[in-house]
Every structure is written in C-alpha cells, then in structure tokens.
Amino acid sequence: MNTFHAHDDDQVEGGALGRKLGLSRRQLFAATTGMAAAAAITALPGRASAAVSATALGTPLIRDSKRGIILYTVRDAISRDPNTTTLPSGFKEVLKALSEIGYERIEFAGFTQHANAEGGANLDSVAGATLLRSWLDEYGLRAEGNHGFIPGSWPLTQADLDRFKVSLEIANILGMDHMGTGNDPTGSNYKADWDIAAQKWNVLGEIARNSGYVKLYTHNHDAAYNFLLDSGPLDAQGRPTRSSGIRKLEYFLGITDPKFVNLEMDIYWAHVAQYKHRTYTAPDGSVQTNIFNPLALVQAQEGRYPLFHAKDGKINTATANGYDMVPFGTGDIDYTTFFRGLVSQHHYPMYEQDTAPGGTANPAQSLQFAQISYNNLSALTTE
Length: 383
Prior knowledge:
Blueprint: H1 15-21, H2 25-31, H3 35-43, H4 47-57, E1 68-70, H5 75-79, H6 90-101, E2 105-108, H7 126-138, E3 142-146, H8 158-174, E4 178-181, H9 191-211, E5 215-219, E6 231-234, E7 240-242, H10 248-255, E8 261-266, H11 267-276, E9 279-281, E10 287-289, H12 294-300, E11 307-310, E12 312-315, E13 323-326, H13 335-340, E14 348-351, H14 365-378
Parallel strand pairs: 1-2, 1-14, 2-3, 4-5, 5-8, 8-11, 11-14
Antiparallel strand pairs: 6-7, 9-10, 12-13
C-alpha cells in the first residue's frame, strides 16, 4: 500500500508515480479545498484516499468505481518518448500511473501514442485494442468511452459505415459501454442542419446498440447551447434569422431517440454557455433574455447523460469564456450542488482539463493535476 511520510515536505510515495512526479504534500494541500479534504489526503494517496475521505467526511458523492478521467488531459504523457524521460509515457505506463492515483474509469481520446512506447504508435485496431484491454485489466481499470470516429457525411458512405463498425468492434473489445465524439453533432446554427444531424445520429445510435451494449454519445461545447435559428424573416439564402428561444442541443434532444442517442455534458462548457449565451432575437424582433441552467437540462432527461466531463473553471470575466480552466476542485463551478441535484448514481464523471499539460517547463504537471483532481473529486460528499 502507498504511504506518506510524516514530514510536510516529504514526497508523495505513490509507488513509482509519486517518486517520478515529485508531488509534495504541500502541493496537494494548496490545491485541495478545505482542511478536512486535506486531512483525508494526508493519510493515503491513490485508491486508499477514497476510503479515508468516506470515513472522515461522510458518504462520497461520487463512488470510487465511478471516478474517471479522459486521457486527453494527460495527452502529453501518452505522446512523449519513453526513451528520453523517466516520467510515465505511453498508454501502458500512464494507465498504471492513473490506477495508482485511484481512477477506475478511463475515457480514451483516440488510440495514438509515441512510436517508441510499447505497442507502437497506433493502437486503433483489433490487435491494438486487445493489447490495451490487457493493460486495463492488469491495472484494474475499465474503459467507459472514446472520443473517436463518427461519420461526418450524410447519407452514410459505405467506407464511413465500414470504419464506424470497426470502431464499434474495438469498443466491444475494450469493454466500453459508450462510444462518442469530442464534437457537437453539427456546428451549424440552423434548424435544417440539426434535423439532418439528428437523423444521422438516430441511425448510428441504432447500429451501435445492435453491435453490442454500446451507447452512442455526443460531447458538447458552449456553442451547442446557443439559441437555434428557426424563425423568420429569412436571409438571402433562405435561412431563418431569429429564434423561438430553444437552444440547439435542447432541440436535438427532442428529435433524437433516447434509446440510441446520449450526451456527455462537459459541465465547464455548459457554464461557459450560461455566461455567454443569454439573449436571443425572438420572431417579433424583440430581444429576450434566458439564462441557461445546465443542471435543469440534465434533470429533465437524466438517463441520457451516462458520462460527464468534470472540468473546473475559475471565474475570469476578462476572457471571452468567463472562466479559466483549473484542476478539479480548485475553481468556482459548484460541483457539489450539481451532483447532489442528480437522482441517479449511474453517471461517470470524467475529469478533464484541456490545459493540464505543462510543456517542457513542467512535464509532470498533467499527472500532478490528475492526482489533485482525483482527491478533490473523491472528497465531495452527499451532505
């Protein structure tokens, strides 16, 4: 079992991970919220910290078996050359490191790594998935999803359909219950394009479910929560210029089949949408205000949100988005209220931070932030 030494300046042992990252207790204390959370982290890192936090702080709001991470957060570690560093690198070593931290669920962001890592550069194949599955099993991890290939064309071409079916085969080998994309269903503002996107996703979702127990999901950014252009007058191209007040993703939910189409709300980007997309021009030309409530949208159809991106943000109104990305639990998004507002425990919050990689100045940063964020995610309690 991994242990801390008794002195404040000692390094987190955490097996090979702690020694490689050089993460001190002071760093963890500074990044976690509340003295109680810090006390829990002091006792034991990794998987053991979840049990300590449950005892010291109450019932965990997110059970340890539900806590996950999308590998985009640690993409720098996966893509670096293992021959030039002692830090975890490539899928195998990074999966091991994440397991030591305590994560149990993994969301992939593609299947490429550095060519010198075990298995080679590209594991996007049946053989590659078999190798990845062996590492997941070895480290007690489970794949929950992947931001992978979703055909862009409609109607579907045979080539796209064939590639999509290979992606589903890979998902089944990895044991994924979900497969999706990192993009919105369409980048358009117009109702006609969302109608087409819904038609395509209904078909793809049915194919996915028929291939095995794979639920198809789309991941959102803030633009998907802007208002749909669905009302006249029309522009020179015959497109609507005003809105009935429905948001694009709300409309998409209403015209897709809940058996086949699911969503992964990125909670950070949903709060960016709350900050940015507040007004629309109604059919009569008046400007209307409508403040977006991410939790209310989820509560309306909670079963359609098997995955979340648990990405935190610190308010910064000097930026266009209104927030800066920070490690989970160190920002201003009220995750306690959000998760307490859900009825079901059948959700997998995947920690994500686009800005976690520290570059050459701090190559260990993304895994350090993964440790901090895991401890803060495990410190959330039901009351």
